Amino acid sequence: MANHSAEVVVEGLKKILISVKEGLDEKVQGKVEKLIAELQGTVPPSHEPFDPDAQKLELGFDFFKNNIFDKNPEYFRELAEAQHPKFLVFACSDSRVSPSIVLNFKLGEAFIGRNIANMVPQFDQWRHTEIGSVIEYAVKELGVENILVMGHSHCGGIARLMELPDHSCSHMSQTYDFIDEWVKIGLPAKQKVKEEANHLPEEEQLRLLEKESVENSMANLLTYPFVRNAVENGSITLRGGYYNFDNGTFEQWKM
User: Fold this and answer.
1) CB 158 within 8 A of CB 209
2) pLDDT tens by residue, 180-204
3) Which residues are paired to 254 by β-bridges?
4) What does pTM read for this prediction?
5) Are residues 165 and 88 in the same domain?
């Protein structure tokens, strides 16, 4: 009885596959053919251990493909030809702070650079070239109209900046190969907060530093000649933003 049922299922799948073969997505077609082969016994069933992380990626793409990509063919045909984003966004690598989700950007609307604590270093052709290349491409090649530096609450990079000891200290409880050197970009912001708000509780100082670091990065953007020229002639607006995921608020300002 079981063998007979399997044969019926196989024959049914074959008929379905043959009847709609032209319209099937290649990936779906491959899965159906593999299933038929396994039911027929010509291919042994896969005994690979279940990988939930791989499944998460596959299901995530399937959702995007079925609900976004396939439903907007004309839009994605245009994107395949070229991108014309109006925004360059610098955001933190923090997994809780995706600007595409928080600010509801569609694909093609924002050119995004993400790093620890959403920092932008000063212009330097020999250091931090990965950040410089993002800015240069966005400004010179894509012609973005806005550059947004987006900070956020409970930023681990800003917390590390606040923890950095004075140069006079010889002992550090914890060191990092890359992070400590990177967050030093924000030292001018830390100095300002310490000078103006050292009397406040540490948590309040951290919130202030998260915003002041955005201001510091906005000022650093002006050290890039092509950014300064674009700002001066009015073709680019520099914007600061702060996302607080404690209360679900977003504030923004212009330089």
Assistant:
1) yes
2) 999 999 999 999 999 999 999 999 9
3) 239
4) 0.79
5) yes
Burial of residue 219 (CB within 10 Å: 0-12, 13-18, 19+) is middle
Is the domain of 102 the same as that of 201? yes
CB 118 within 8 A of CB 214: yes
Enumerate the known binding-site residues.
92, 94, 152, 155
Mean pLDDT of 7-20: 66
Annotated binding site for Zn(2+): 92, 94, 152, 155
User: What is the chain's length?
Assistant: 255
3-state secondary structure of 129: helix
Same domain, 163 and 199: yes
Q: Are 157 and 116 in contact (CB under 8 A)?
A: yes
Structural domain for 59, as ranges:
49-81
CATH number at residue 213: 3.40.1050.10
CA 184/CA 121 separation, integer angstroms: 9
Give the number of domains in the chain: 3
Distance set, CA 69 to CA 55, 99, 105 (Å): 19, 20, 15
**Confidence (pLDDT) at 169:** 45
Q: Which amino acid is at 219?
A: A
